[in-house]
Amino acid sequence: MTALAIENLSHGFGARRALYDVNLSMEPGSFTVLLGPNGAGKTTLVSLVTGLYSAQQGDIRIFGHSIRRDPLPALASLGVVFQMPTLDLDLTVAQNMAYHGALHGLSRREGMERAGKELARLEVSDRQGDKVRALSGGLRRRVEIARALLHRPQFLIVDEATAGLDVAGRQLLLTHVRSLCREGLSVLWATHMLDEVEPADQLVVLHRGSVRWTGEAREFAPGQTLEAAFLQLTRSPS
Ligand SMILES: Nc1ncnc2c1ncn2[C@@H]1O[C@H](COP(=O)(O)OP(=O)(O)OP(=O)(O)O)[C@@H](O)[C@H]1O
């Protein structure tokens, strides 16, 4: 069964078309990079997959469950890190985690246990008692990833989580999330940063609302750099 199956997905805002006839399939345990320049439609796609918007056309299935017909099991298997940070700045890290755990039906004890484990894996457990406002941008992002994993999702979707982070912070997040894939997690990683792509990743290039290329990243630009091939593709007028 595919982790994510998107068929003939189109969506727009008034007269502006944001996605046109997008088809996409992700295998369980794969790390898939959704790569596109600003305005390509990445956040719109993430918003549709996470049920924030209802698609005007097409179908989205997560582990076989249609977001439209079967939203509860579809969304229960999903962990999400949105482009815009969503932690409550005036709550502590532990309180943010507890709130998320309660939303997902975890008991207080289980929520605390899970929070301790995920925060430790991202090396932020020593900041559990701090208000999020007191954390640097990089630490906040780590907490968001830990929070998204709290309810043990099978599928993690991350929208530009490394924006604004330094090189070490980006590396830490990517290395951690890639290691989770080796444990079976499926990941859709939306970014415009070419240096976040590795040859073995599954790559989906989105430009002006349509999928322009899909396959193993190492196959994308044989004989030229990823940058050159990406620029060539995304400079095309349509
Ligand atoms: N709420 C909205 N209302 C109107 N237009 C929107 C809205 N959200 C997105 N758009 C438009 O849809 C298109 C795709 O935007 P989207 O934010 O999905 O792209 P993106 O790839 O995530 O870009 P970025 O990397 O800059 O975040 C753009 O033309 C954008 O202006």
Radius of gyration: 18 Å
Sheet of most strands = 6 strands, mixed
Kindly identify the CATH topology of the domain at 1-77 and 154-162 and 191-238.
Rossmann fold
Overall number of strands: 10
Secondary-structure-based class equals alpha/beta
Overall, the morphology is: globular
The ordered H/E elements are EEEHEEHEHHHEHEEEH
Protein name: ABC transporter ATP-binding protein
GO molecular function: ATP binding; ATP hydrolysis activity
InterPro entries: AAA+_ATPase, ABC_transporter-like_ATP-bd, ABC_transporter_ATP-binding, ABC_transprt_ATP-bd_su_PQQ, P-loop_NTPase
Family: Belongs to the ABC transporter superfamily.
Summary tags:
238 residues, alpha/beta, Rossmann fold, six-stranded mixed β-sheet, four-stranded antiparallel β-sheet, 32% helix, globular, binds adenosine-5'-triphosphate, ATP hydrolysis activity, ATP-binding, P-loop_NTPase, ABC_transporter-like_ATP-bd, nodulation
Structural notes for this entry:
The longest helix is centred in the last third of the chain and has 16 residues, at 167-182. This protein has 7 helices and 10 strands. 39% of the residues are buried. The two termini are 34 Å apart. A hairpin with a 2-residue loop joins strand 9 (202-207) and strand 10. The chain has a domain at 1-77 and 154-162 and 191-238: 3-Layer(aba) Sandwich (Rossmann fold). It has a 6-stranded mixed β-sheet with strand order 6-7-8-3-9-10, sandwiched between helices. The chain has a 4-stranded antiparallel β-sheet with strand order 2-1-4-5. It is globular and about 50 Å long. The chain has 238 residues and is an alpha/beta fold. Bound molecules: adenosine-5'-triphosphate. Adenosine-5'-triphosphate binds next to strand 2 and helix 1. Adenosine-5'-triphosphate binds at residues 13, 16, 18, 36, 38-44, 83, 192.
